[in-house]
Design brief:
This is Putative beta-barrel assembly-enhancing protease. With 484 residues, the chain is mainly α. Among the domains are: 256 residues, no CATH class; 55 residues. The chain is built from 24 helices and three strands.
């Protein structure tokens, strides 16, 4: 089910998004970033982006792993800080899929498939893909593509954007609508897409260099993918949505060769993230995962990579209840990386598995002194209190957490569990309502909030809060439906 919906989503997005770049020197970049100004406003793009993201949460296997999300966001924001023409907030997230792909859409949303980590050999290579997708957003390629299509068809920009929304929510209906809008203009669309891809490469290279990454990583990654799938009957989605003709690879290689090569040390967090994905998010059983660790260990002497392989092994042991084996490895890694969130997250789970709740609490609270308000540490600490059945403490923590990170379903899920354990049915329903809203299931969200209001004490502040939220959800639902 996920694959079918995801395929439709990627096809719909790729028909409209794929983006090129221009040369990295600022005086060589044409002033084309605002060409879509007459199409959709930035505010309208943000509204559509929020709508698309809600549907993606409901239809795609979005990875809700706090520590992986922190890593992807950290990498993304480092690149955004060095990008030109940034006019919107950015949001980075992972989709659990072994296929290589990435895409961007309205509102600064950038999706990365977990399979990208399997094929990226360095953080610079991964960053080159992220930088490319950021360029799609900053240069407003989706809006510009819609503008181009609107000139060729009788449909309005709103109809095109609504078709894309439908393509995500109901693949058959949406793809049919998009196909109708593209009749008679496929060749022009293909040419426009190829142009956008080269443009995104150039802008992406500029961002990559300014952020301190290796410029050669982009052509190196592209070349390896092209060689690997040159004769494949079914190339990965990335190559379908981001074609790699030889001239595109040559262009990126030529630009990289004009720059000084950058020798970067191995990124600890990149390799930890890759290890975590292989251990937990590619569907390997214990033996296959440990076999991968063993084979990879024989191929490297890099201490950061070796540490990440130990980390992968510890996660496999932890997930398979081999607590003593996991304990030995994680304590060794903690001695080396005492402030690393990948290690702290796993060690917290280890303490919970051993019912060492006080130790887990101290570990995380000490770390929060160094990294105040860190969401990975906070959600882990809240989870410790839940597992220790300290529900009143967990409730207070999670109420604050969900207020500050209202789009993080982890917080709402834990709060729902906590409220249920405390016997607070209305609170449990309200938390579940927020999860439904994050997935564009407006009617269900309104239904459970209505139930919560009926349970709450008549005339109480709690009931007033639920009723006010119902009014907000009704407005949000109407706005969402109007977009289609």
């Amino acid at each position: 089910m996920f694959k079918r919906t995801q395929s439709a989503l990627c096809l719909a997005l790729s028909c409209l998004i794929a983006a090129p770049s221009t040369s990295f020197a600022s005086n060589e970049l044409p002033d084309i970033g605002t060409a879509a100004g007459g199409t959709l406003s930035i505010n309208q793009e943000n509204v559509y982006g929020d709508a698309y993201m809600r549907i993606i949460r409901a239809s795609q296997p979005v990875i809700g792993d706090p520590v992986l999300n922190e890593y992807v966001e950290s990498l993304g924001f480092k690149l955004v800080a060095n990008a030109d023409d940034v006019k919107t907030p950015f949001h980075f997230f992972l989709i659990r899929d072994r296929n290589i792909n990435a895409f961007a859409f309205f509102g600064g949303y950038v999706a990365l498939h977990s399979g990208l980590f399997l094929h990226s050999q360095s953080e610079s290579e991964l960053a080159s893909v992220v930088a490319h997708e950021i360029a799609h957003v900053t240069q407003r390629h989706l809006a510009r593509s819609m503008e181009d299509q609107a000139r060729r068809t009788p449909l309005t920009i709103a109809a095109l954007a609504g078709s894309l929304l439908l393509a995500i929510a109901a693949p058959e209906a949406g793809i049919a609508a998009l196909t109708a809008t593209q009749a008679g203009s496929m060749q022009a669309q293909i040419n426009y897409t190829r142009s956008n891809e080269k443009e995104a490469d150039r802008f992406g290279m500029s961002t990559l260099v300014k952020a301190g990454f290796d410029p050669a990583a982009m052509p190196r990654f592209f070349s390896r993918l092209a060689d690997q799938y040159r004769y494949a009957s079914t190339p990965p989605a990335f190559l379908l949505t981001h074609p790699l003709p030889e001239d595109r690879i040559s262009d990126s290689r030529a630009r990289a060769e004009k720059l000084s090569p950058v020798k970067l040390p191995a990124s600890t967090n990149f390799h930890f993230a890759k290890a975590r994905i292989i251990a937990r998010y590619v569907g390997l059983d214990q033996n296959a995962a440990l076999d991968w660790v063993g084979r990879t260990t024989k191929k490297t002497t890099n201490k950061e990579v070796l540490a990440s392989l130990d980390y992968a092994k510890a996660l496999v042991y932890l997930d398979n209840k081999q607590i003593d084996e996991a304990d030995t490895i994680l304590m060794k890694l903690f001695d080396i990386y005492p402030n690393n969130n990948f290690i702290l997250d796993a060690l917290s789970d280890l303490h919970i598995a051993k019912e060492q709740f006080a130790q887990a609490e101290k570990l995380l609270e000490d770390s929060l002194v160094l990294k105040p308000n860190n969401p990975v540490l906070l959600i882990n600490l809240a989870n410790v209190h839940v597992e220790a059945q300290q529900y009143d403490v967990a409730q207070r923590m999670l109420q604050r957490f969900t207020h500050e990170w209202s789009n993080d379903s982890n917080g709402w899920s834990l709060l729902s569990k906590t409220e249920a354990a405390m016997g607070n049915t209305s609170g449990e329903l309200a938390a579940r309502g927020e999860i439904y809203a994050l997935r564009a299931n407006w009617n269900k969200a309104i239904q459970v909030y209505t139930q919560a209001s009926q349970i709450a004490e008549l005339g109480s502040l709690e009931q007033a809060r639920y009723d006010a939220r119902i009014d907000q959800l009704l407005v949000q639902r109407d706005r969402f439906m109007a977009l289609q």
